[in-house]
Design a protein that fits this description.
Helix content: 10-25%
Low-confidence stretches: 159-201, 374-383
Strand content: 25-35%
CATH class of the largest domain: Mainly Beta
Shape: globular
Mean pLDDT: 78
Number of strands: 22
Number of helices: 9
CATH architecture of the largest domain: Beta Barrel
Distance between the termini: 69 Å
């Protein structure tokens, strides 16, 4: 597939900005425009990438197109409009109003099979109901999973490369994609001084990661997971450097997990082992670790909440299906001496299960999968056998 040249990319940008502006009668988010350019270029048998055109960021490419006006907003995506609408565009510079959390979640949580979301005006609340429910309300169509992932990739790519923190120390902004989950990260230089190592031959970096999606409750975790398993780490594969820049390595470690029980989903080909991708690792005397998300160790047992990792840019030649942890660290519940423990960085609602026996926790997970609209925080009472 050939790369779209600059003239073709500019024409496509102008066309889509005008198209969306005419349809919406308002400025267009930059992430939506870029996602559309990528899709349309593929339909035409080409590939759109600002990097192929010599730009580090999408916004840098947009600035070279005089027919398109740009408006930045604090804490949000850039807005685009035809240059003839520049005055109107400036009116959108103010920060966005806050949106109710339940409304936001209704639209951005990934769609759930055999479930619907409704807005009930009389009670002014969002309903999550089984498909075919008799409850009445305004149907809500969640933003498709692939659309959200493309938005996240675009947003991550637009983040600054270098950040100066309040203490004056230098941090390097890093964009990391594990599985389909794109995360923004900041790498703190653990070495003396503020210079990043020039090559992968020395030093240690701690990557501070902020997951794009971080499940708050067990129900959210279950909904977001393609696969949930009870398994034991059996081995680690050699560390992979996923960075395309030779002087800025980013390590990733793939762990082999022997599956003891599948609680949700199905493992392709009925494999008894899966690969789990995690950010971090060590090559020579240069290492990378995630703050709050240590790598697993062979022999450790976990209840894992996983998302399918189908990255084409990092081929999987192991013969085992590969997954990423939901929420980067949230989806790893470690089992030690028969007791469950979520990592310190997980939400308070998830850490409330810490210290629970693994059998009881697995029972709660199964109940959440089977009956997602039951409050699984409450004790589960089973009916006595008939005849007793």
């Amino acid at each position: 597939m050939s790369a779209l040249d600059q003239a073709g990319a500019r024409d496509l940008l102008v066309r889509f900005v005008k198209k969306f502006y005419d349809e919406r009668h308002s400025p267009v988010p930059g992430a939506l425009v870029k996602a559309s350019l990528v899709t349309e270029a593929q339909k035409e048998g080409a590939e759109f990438s600002e990097h192929h055109l010599g730009f580090r960021k999408f916004i840098e490419f947009v600035r070279t197109v005089p027919e398109v006006a740009i408006q930045g907003r604090s804490g949000s995506d850039i807005l685009l409009a035809p240059v003839t609408a520049s005055e109107l565009l400036a009116a959108y510079a103010a920060p966005l109003p806050r949106l109710r959390r339940d409304f936001w979640r209704a639209f951005v949580e990934f769609p759930v099979e055999n479930a619907v979301r409704l807005y009930e005006p009389a009670e002014d609340k969002i309903l999550h109901e089984p498909k075919g429910t008799q409850r009445q309300g305004v149907p809500i169509d969640p933003v498709p999973r692939e659309t959200q992932l493309q938005w996240r990739r675009t947003f991550s790519e637009e983040q600054p490369e270098t950040i100066i923190d309040k203490e004056g120390g230098q941090r390097m902004g890093i964009r990391i994609a594990v599985g389909g989950l794109v995360v923004g990260a900041v790498s703190i230089l653990a070495q003396t001084g503020a210079q990043r190592p020039a090559a992968i031959n020395g030093g240690h970096e701690v990557v501070m990661v902020e997951p794009v999606f971080s499940p708050w409750t067990l129900l959210q975790m279950v909904r977001a997971s393609d696969l949930i398993v009870d398994g034991t780490v059996s081995s680690l594969l050699p560390v992979i450097n996923t960075s395309k820049e030779t002087d800025r390595p980013m390590f990733e470690t793939h762990s082999v997990v022997a599956v003891g029980e599948v609680l949700k989903g199905a493992i392709p080909n009925g494999s008894a082992n899966i690969l789990m991708a995690q950010i971090g690792g060590q090559v020579g005397n240069h290492s990378v670790s995630v703050d709050g998300g240590p790598l697993v160790v062979p022999g450790e047992r976990y209840v894992l909440f996983l998302d399918a990792d189908v990255r084409k840019e990092l081929p999987n030649t192991s013969g085992m299906p590969r997954y990423a942890v939901v929420g980067v660290w949230s989806g790893k519940a470690k089992v030690t001496n028969g007791l469950v423990a979520f990592p310190p960085s997980a939400s308070p609602a998830l850490k409330a299960y810490n210290g629970q026996g693994v059998d009881a926790f697995l029972q709660t997970v199964r109940a959440t999968i089977t009956h997602p609209y039951t409050n699984t925080q409450l004790p589960i009472q089973f009916a006595p056998p008939q005849g007793h």
